[in-house]
Amino acid sequence: RIIPRIEHKFDTQYSRAMTTQFDLTEDQRAIQDMARKFTADAITPHAAEWDEHHIFPRDTIREAAKLGFASIYVSEEGGGIGLGRLEAALIMEAMAYGCPSTSAFISIHNMAAWMIDHFGSDELKARYLPSMLTAERLSSYCLTEPGSGSDAAALKTRAMRGSKAFISGGGENEIYVTMVRTGEDGPKGITCLVIEKDMPGVSFGANEKKLGWHSQPTTQVVFEDVRVPVENLVGGEGEGFRIAMMGLDGGRLNIGACSLGGAQRCLDEAIAYTKDRKQFGKAIADFQNTQFMLA
Questions:
Q1: How many separate helices (H) and strands (E) can be counted in the chain?
Q2: Helices in the chain by DSSP H: which ranges?
Q3: Kind of pairing between the strands at 175-181 and 139-142
Q4: Digitized pLDDT (tens) for each residue of the chain, 295 residues in all
Q5: What crossing angle do the helices spanning 240-276 and 100-119 adopt, rounded to 10°?
């Protein structure tokens, strides 16, 4: 009889430990609450209009930057707020509850800023980060090409001739953190550069036709004999693939958080509708079939 009680006590303590280790700290809850309030005030009321009319909400993004949301995991030394990946995910999830497209765009800008802060020279950081952290200048992450998507190491853009595909912010953003081939085939021949919108030889394709996701432009970025100064190198030559993958480590977490925020909004809207919609004299939320569907 003693052994089962000991096992039960252990199971209870283990379960409690497993639960509490995922509890948010007071600071994390405060960050989450701030992001939710900003979303409720500045994003949710406008998201449908942005999507319907293809409006890029640059002013709203700048308002988000005032809260530090354009520099979430840029170091404090670099002018950012120096938070971790979990805090970034909480912010992205909260903003995606109002508009996943806008939240994902802000995530990409954060990723590009982090890459410059983490791997750029002091001169490069001083030249770009101040205007990026206020969202005065916005940034894109340029890796995907027409012939290389998930096989990123196969990219072909070389000597600043080539193109990048499905670039969020294409044609609107001022800064493009771009992976190009400067050496041998494979990952070791890829280098990361900062390219500006107005550099001679940079042009953009038409906005992609998308199902939703209209609050941010998505285009092809084309490079034709673009001359990029060596000072715009991010990290060392041949380190671009590693830098790109490290950037995606955080970016993929954020996109997952954006998906979670959007899904939660869908569920909440569906539940609210079932409570309001009435059939046969009662709310359809009271029908067992509806409850099964939402459970």
A1: 9, 9
A2: 2-20, 26-38, 47-53, 58-66, 85-96, 100-119, 122-133, 240-276, 288-294
A3: parallel
A4: 455 555 555 555 655 555 566 799 999 999 999 999 999 999 999 999 999 999 999 999 999 999 999 999 999 999 999 999 999 999 999 999 999 999 999 999 999 999 999 999 999 999 999 999 999 999 999 999 987 766 777 777 776 788 999 999 999 999 999 999 988 888 899 999 999 999 999 999 999 999 999 999 999 999 999 999 999 999 999 999 999 999 999 899 999 999 999 999 999 999 999 999 999 999 999 999 999 998 8
A5: 160
